[in-house]
Structures are given as C-alpha cells and as structure tokens.
Write a structure and sequence with these properties.
Shape: globular
Largest sheet: none
Number of helices: 14
Distance between the termini: 55 Å
Structural class: mainly alpha
Helix content: over 70%
Strand content: under 5%
Number of strands: 0
Radius of gyration: 22 Å
Length: 373
C-alpha cells in the first residue's frame, strides 16, 4: 500500500518527541507528581481530539488521524515541559550508563519482543485474509484496549516507583502487589465483561450496524485484556526488585508459547476467529506463567493469588450472563433503551452484590474516598 509511505514517515516524527516525553514521565513518576501527569495527559487528549475532528471535518481523511496522533504527544510533552523542572542537557555519563545498562537492556529487549508479538497478528491477518477482516479485527480490539490500557498505564506509572522505594522489603512488595491485582481486577472485570455483554448494541450505536461483524472479536479481546493487568502488577514487582532478567525470561516463555498457538491457529484452522481464540489461550497461559514466580520471589502463594482475582471475576461473569439473558428476552426493544437498561442492570448488580459480599476492594475504595473528603 504505497499511499501509507508518506503517512508513516510523517507519523515517525513522534519518535524524538516521545523520547523526551518518556524521560519527563519517568521524572514525574519518580517524584510522585502524578497531578502534573494527569493534566498533561488530559490536555493532550482533549486538544488532539478537537484537532483530529476539525481536520476530518475539513475533508483531509486519514490525515486527521495523523494530526491527532502527533498533536497528542506534542501537547503532552509541552505541558510537562512548562510544569516540570527537569530539562535535558548536552551531557553524557559513562558511569551511569554502566549502572543502568545491566537492568535496562533486558527491559528494552523485552519491550521489543512484546511489540513485535503484538503486531504480528495484524500482519498475518492483513496478509492472509481480506482488508475487511483486518478492519473488523482491529476495531474489535480497539475498545477493550482503550479501557484496559488506561487502567494498566495508571498501575504502571504508580506501582513501579512505590515498589522501588521499598525494594528491600519483599513483604511490602507482596502487600502492594496484592492490592494492585485486587483493585485492577475489581475495576476491569465489570468494565470489560460488561462491554462484552453489551457488545452488539454498543457497536450498533457507536459505529452503526455495518461494523457488527467486529462484535465476536470485541468479546474475545475483552477477556484477553482483562488478564493483562494481573500480569502487569507482577512484572512491576520483579522490576522493582531489580530483577529485569525475570521479566525477560517470562516474556520469552510466554511469546514462544504464543507463537506456537498462533501458528497452529493460522495453518490448521485458517480463521480470524481461531486466531483470536488462540490469542485468548496464550493470555491464559501467560497469566498462569507468572504465578510460580510470584510465589518464589515474594511468597505470593497460589491461594492468595486466587483470592485476589476470583471473587471479582466470578461476580463480573454472573453480571455478564444476567445482561446476556436480559438482551435475549428483550431483543425487540428500542436499541437505545435496551442499551441503557443493560448498563443499568450491570452497574446495579455489580455494586449491590459487591456490598452484600463485602468485597474488600470496594471497602478499600470507599475508605479511600472518605479520607479524601
């Protein structure tokens, strides 16, 4: 697709800007100035959204997405530039490089491995199947990814500096990791499984009925992304301990298994749905692969891990079934009323039963809100 060449070249301008921004964000995280990070992200999101919509309205097509993509990181970087004291200098320290190299190269290799693996699925679908299959699969991934990445990014930004400050205390790291996994599951489970349950009316309202073929992919990816924050908390704990080698080793194991499953899905079943189901299977394996390492390095037992994950997950599954049954019994309702009722049923059910069952994560959030007020 030759027309993508110029677009990709322009979008690559983001790389040097993002390199500055990444150091700014590291400084903000290390010094716990998360309010500044919030304002920068909020400003970038709002301004880039308006610019993207405006350029699209003027009729520039795909360039609206390019403008939105570039302006987001540019505004984010500029806001942090004027609000954060850190500035880049034309200096280089070999002694600091040697200290950071042992830890950092493993993080770099792991990140490259994850990014290559994450994009190889789209490359295969685009090459082996039709452009419409690629469009539907991408759109099915987009909304679950948006929900999960926001919560996942928040966990990453806050968790690593907090754990790093107490890296000599495995008991403290275990306590914070448990809290992170529990809260992440409690928040994400209803959001993602709720989205899976209302997938059909949601897509029809937001994207029109032309995009309904993406619903099966959306539902599968909701479960895939639900499992990722569980892994994120464990990974940040290992990195905080200075054990980026564990992170690298884990990702190699996960990605080898994922490539095997992907290969079987592509060549034995030749179906985009099969590829997504294989992705789900690989994600379950990845989550399970973390558990022995959690137990070994900070005594986070299998029972404790199940206690932190399963209650919220099961409650969200029951919520999903309740919404699905309601939709099947009332499929002839007005689309907007049906969608609104499904959301209402899901929210009320999850909150009420969390209170009834005295979910510890809900209690923690309520106590936190009381302290704030």
């Amino acid at each position: 697709m030759d027309k993508l060449c110029v677009i990709l070249r322009v979008m690559a301008i983001r790389i040097p800007i993002a390199s500055i921004n990444s150091v700014q964000q590291a400084y903000v995280s290390k010094t716990y100035q998360f309010k500044k990070f919030f304002y920068a992200t909020l400003g970038g999101t709002i301004i880039s959204a308006f610019l993207g919509i405006f350029v699209a309205y003027l009729g520039y097509g795909v360039w609206a997405l390019v403008i939105q993509y570039l302006s987001n990181v540019l505004v984010d970087t500029l806001v942090l530039w004027f609000t954060v004291k850190w500035r880049p200098n034309l200096e280089f320290s070999f002694s600091r490089m040697r200290v950071l190299y042992s830890f950092g190269w493993k993080i770099l290799v792991t990140s490259l491995l994850i990014n290559v693996y994450s994009n190889i699925q789209d490359l295969i679908i685009g090459k082996k199947f039709s452009p419409s299959d690629l469009a539907y699969s991408n759109k099915g991934r987009q909304f679950p990814s948006l929900i999960a990445s926001n919560i996942n990014t928040s966990l990453n930004k806050v968790l690593f500096p907090i754990l790093s400050d107490k890296q000599d205390s495995t008991e403290y790291i275990k306590k914070i990791t448990r809290k992170s996994i529990g809260l992440g599951t409690f928040l994400l489970a209803p959001l993602l499984l709720g989205l899976a349950a209302v997938g059909k009316p949601f897509v029809e309202i937001i994207l029109t009925h032309n995009w309904l073929p993406c619903v099966p992919y959306l539902r599968i990816m909701c479960v895939v992304f639900l499992l990722q924050p569980i892994q994120t908390s464990s990974v940040q704990a290992f990195n905080a301990l200075g054990r980026s080698d564990i992170y690298l080793r884990l990702e190699i194991i996960k990605k080898v298994f994922g490539v095997i499953v992907l290969t079987v899905s592509v060549f034995c079943y030749s179906s985009v749905v099969a590829i997504f189901i294989g992705c789900l299977l690989a994600e379950f394996f990845s989550t399970a692969a973390n558990m022995p390492f959690n137990k070994k390095y900070f005594n986070y037992t299998y029972y404790e891990q199940m206690v932190d994950i399963v209650p919220s997950f099961l409650l969200a599954v029951v919520m999903y079934l309740l919404i699905t049954i309601f939709e099947s019994l009332n499929s002839t309702w007005n689309l907007y009323i049906l969608f609104g009722m499904e959301i209402l049923i899901g929210v009320v059910f999850y909150i009420v039963f969390s209170v009834v069952l005295r979910n510890k994560n809900l209690i923690y959030i309520i106590n936190l809100l009381k302290l704030r007020t």
